[in-house]
Amino acid sequence: MLVSQTEYSPVQTKLTKQQTLLTIEPTLFQNVYFCFQVTEDKSVKWSEKQKIVYTAPTPPGTKKDTSLPFPPSYSPEFVESSWYQWWEKEGFFNPEQHRLPHAVDQTFSLCIPPPNVTGTLHLGHALTVAVEDALVRWRRMQGYRVLWVPGCDHAGIATQTVVERRLLRDQGKRRRDLSREEFLQEVWKWKNEKGEEIYQQLRSLGASLDWSRACFTMDPRFSSAVTEAFVRLCDSGLIYRSEGLVNWSCALESAISDIEVDSQELSGQTLLSVPGYDNKVEFGTMLSFAYSIDGHDGEVVVSTTRPETMLGDVAVAVHPDDPRYQAVHGKRCRHPFTNRLLPIITDPVVDMELGTGAVKVTPAHDYADFLLSKRHSLPRLTVIRGDGTMAPPCGQWLEGVKRFDARELVVDALVEKNLFRGKESHAMTLPVCSRSGDIIEPLLKKQWFVRCDEMAKKAVQVGWMTTMSHCFLHSDWCISRQIWWGHQIPAYQVELPNCTDTEEERWVWGRSEDEARQRASVKYGVQPEVLTLTRDPDVLDTWFSSALFPFAMLGWPQLTTDLQRYYPNSILETGSDLIFFWVAKMVMLCTELTGQLPFKQVLFHPMVRDKHGRKMSKSLGNVIDPLDVIHGVSLERLEEKVMEGNLDPRERLVAMEAQRKDFPKGIPQCGTDALRLALCSHKIQGEDISLSVSQVLSCRHFCNKMWQTLRFTLGVLVDDTARVTSPEETTPLSSMDRWICSRLYSTVLQCEQAFEAYELHTVTSALYSFWVHSLCDVYMECVKPVLVQQDDASARQVASSVLYHCVSVSLALLSPIMPFITEELWQRLRPFRPGAASQTSLCLQPYPCSSQLAHWHFPEEEGAFVLIQDVIRMARSLRAQCGMTKEKPTS
């Protein structure tokens, strides 16, 4: 049944000069693959049109009824209905489907970069899905045994933050008001309610994942793998406990990873809102103050952007060659508030040109100073506690005061002691916690660390790129997190009986507490029952468990059939921004724990930016939800999403103004196929992708072109009494038939080579060019008289067979990139197929092979038509540019 509703249709506009040039000579624009990619309006323009909806009774998992009348125009909602549920229920995405007649004895395996369970998909995820699914569907059609595993990351800090906010909003409770077990029950409750949303979004994008193997990083089996990895790495000395400087969020009271630290560039003096403070806090200033030299009339002036940390100063450093300080080498300064003596040390790392050339050394609160303290054996004095308040060593006047309030008190006290030497605006980079908006505080903490240098060297030795190891050689990786949601560290602090030494920490680890107790008994030479074990309350960094994904998802440490068959993975495809945060960690841990690299190939895609080339940001209002592009969304709903977020009121105004400018009528419904085509049409092994909704809308026009082509083809086949012959039986008679057959052969060859090189933009370009410029613009126009005439049945049969195969083969070529529309159209074409279809779905049909169409290669005819094609394209472009066309838009 067909039901009419409201749909969208583009407003036809004149071609720009750039478009005309592209139509005449595509090679002039090597980075642009479709004509629509150079069309960039200031806002998306479209008008409403009738929408068609599929409403035939089709229980979920039942095959869609394609015997219904063929709708007059393309509608994404109609096309994408029912297919995915049928594919999934039939098990088409399982590797056990490897019983295909054209199956080959090869595997293709990969995991999807696990999105956070808290999140919703953004265009970066959509690009990942579009690229990976295209490769997966292509290999599956080639007969490979394909395994693509879906997964979801527990996202420790992000999830805990979301649940804490909900608890406070709904129950007025904070995390500390509950026991750990009670809070974790709340998290699991939330996960069970919301956790499936991300999977449904992946289904909406057409991802052909094996859902029977879906993997969540907090599942019992995966958690066992995490514990096993930790124990093995501790046993080999690659995980150790030590005191080190970490990125600390005072709002979360936890260490965080580098990827959770945003760098905010300040051009100078700036007032910013900070969690926990009623008034804005000043940043972007450099303050100078003096230290009096003990037993000397002089002073040393130092500069800092964080005066509150001066309570933790343990030395003053100068460059050994700085002539201004030659006379004070080895002398000491007197701290004005604690009366401590601070040595004046020399070190070549000091920049003589920066500030006064003398720097305060605060090892417990600065990374550079921490390294300096190691070289000069300096003490490390912590003056800021984990909650962001000042510590007891600061003195009673500051103890318990919040750090940025203490900043003002310290400056006032320096002024009072006549030691303040001025303040000036100063450009700086401010580290901000992406989860809480808090300012990161480097703090000295006892944590668990992974030794990265040896593992990185081992990864290089087994064949990994040398560049991958560099990011870990300078420091080890802190894997402790002071939160409750996550994999609790399987390490236990040991208390010996009758032991009076409370300073020394004694630790053991184990797969269970019983195992840890036995290890402690052996290590300390006492009976296990007299030991007191206390498990570390911290959890492991989320990236630790994510780094195990390539083999933990396959059942490691057990030697499962999946692990033996699908590890190492065939390929990893992910964003280039995760090279060091995730990819290098996977390489190190997987190589160490399995003796093999986790994947044979790595394919990085660039960042997706907006049409202006800007990074997508909620505060700019340019973040595009892929589901909004697929289903369409009103401007009112876009603004509601901004209001539902956590933006500053001023940022909300900026974001909504940008939305009103770019999407005055909202975003039109473009469909999954159009979005995937637009994403795959960009060169992924290159610069960042600037994507606009206009590009996706143009891809939707191409979907309608495909739809109308099939309408014409079905009309020809229904009226033709002769059967369609197979490619082997079809001998092109006319030069036009030979030309289009040769163009089809060349297109198949291009797609074969491009897929092997992972150049999806070449696949889309070749297929768009063939379908639009060769099949529609030339062949169909030229053979219409042949197809309607009755006197030459032979020529009519050949032309109809050629047309059928051009459309059928093209649908198969496009299937990995545009699975919904190709399945819909192929099923409609299937009754006319010569012989029985080997499979019930296009996604299991053999991918077209150039060797099977080699007899259709006519290079002479193909070369002779190049000039004719160019003339036709130029004529169409000029006609459209001059406003001579009377055609109405059809999508």
UniProtKB/TrEMBL annotation:
It comes from the Eukaryota. It catalyses: tRNA(Val) + L-valine + ATP = L-valyl-tRNA(Val) + AMP + diphosphate. SUPFAM superfamilies: Anticodon-binding domain of a subclass of class I aminoacyl-tRNA synthetases, Nucleotidylyl transferase, ValRS/IleRS/LeuRS editing domain. One of its GO terms (molecular function) is ATP binding. One of its GO terms (biological process) is valyl-tRNA aminoacylation. Residues 737-889 form the Methionyl/Valyl/Leucyl/Isoleucyl-tRNA synthetase anticodon-binding domain. PROSITE patterns: AA_TRNA_LIGASE_I (PS00178). It holds the Pfam family tRNA-synt_1. The keyword Aminoacyl-tRNA synthetase applies. Keywords: Aminoacyl-tRNA synthetase, ATP-binding, Ligase, Mitochondrion, Nucleotide-binding, Protein biosynthesis, Transit peptide. It is found in: Mitochondrion. One of its GO terms (cellular component) is mitochondrion. Its EC number is 6.1.1.9. Its main location: mitochondrion. Residues 83-691 form the Aminoacyl-tRNA synthetase class Ia domain. Catalyzes the attachment of valine to tRNA(Val) in a two-step reaction: valine is first activated by ATP to form Val-AMP and then transferred to the acceptor end of tRNA(Val). Belongs to the class-I aminoacyl-tRNA synthetase family. This is Valine--tRNA ligase, mitochondrial. The gene is vars2.
